[in-house]
């Protein structure tokens, strides 16, 4: 089950389309969808989570809490809509494309992909692009 929660005035235009896409992303990695909760928020909200749970006093676009067990993908994914907007502008991409990248990024972590080492980060970016392309493909 995938749910979308809003701690800011932002809302997804088509939750059903995003839900279907995330399920297909998970299936494409030969995993099963458990409970995934997306929480869209602002910078202040996510900064407080970053300080409280990770002891990081920095802004970030995403924080994910992984509850995956085996191949059952579950977790809470907090996304700062403000950060995504700023990053989209900085990288010269549309907001919705950057949002899809970040949404896929959280799930890809749950699927076992890392991004700290250079090689891992390159693979993560490649997987993000692959999954973004899946958004536009009908089931």
Automatic annotation (TrEMBL):
Keyword Lipid metabolism: no
Residues at which Zn(2+) binds: 105, 109, 115
Cofactor: Zn(2+)
Keywords from the named record: Cytoplasm, Endonuclease, Hydrolase, Metal-binding, Nuclease, Ribosome biogenesis, rRNA processing, Zinc
Annotated coiled-coil segments of the chain: none
Metal-binding in keyword set: yes
EC number(s) reported in the record: 3.1.-.-
Localization, UniProt: Cytoplasm
Cofactor binding note: Binds 1 zinc ion.
Pfam families: YbeY (PF02130)
Gene3D superfamilies referenced in this protein's UniProt entry, alphabetically: Metalloproteases ('zincins'), catalytic domain (3.40.390.30)
Function according to Swiss-Prot or TrEMBL: Single strand-specific metallo-endoribonuclease involved in late-stage 70S ribosome quality control and in maturation of the 3' terminus of the 16S rRNA.
Protein family per UniProt: Belongs to the endoribonuclease YbeY family.
Name the UniProt record assigns to this protein: Endoribonuclease YbeY
Source species of the chain: Flavobacterium litorale
This protein's encoding gene: ybeY
């Amino acid at each position: 089950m995938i749910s979308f929660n809003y701690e800011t005035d932002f809302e997804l235009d088509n939750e059903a389309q995003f839900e279907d896409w995330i399920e297909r992303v998970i299936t494409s990695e030969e995993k099963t969808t458990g409970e995934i909760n997306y929480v869209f928020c602002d910078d202040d909200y996510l900064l407080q989570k970053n300080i409280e749970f990770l002891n990081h006093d920095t802004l970030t676009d995403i924080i994910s809490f992984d509850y995956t067990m085996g191949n059952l993908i579950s977790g809470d994914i907090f996304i700062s809509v403000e950060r995504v907007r700023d990053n989209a502008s900085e990288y010269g991409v549309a907001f919705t494309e950057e949002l899809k990248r970040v949404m896929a990024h959280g799930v890809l972590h749950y699927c076992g992909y890392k991004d700290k080492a250079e090689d891992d980060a390159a693979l993560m970016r490649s997987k993000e692009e692959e999954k973004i392309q899946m958004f536009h493909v009908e089931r």
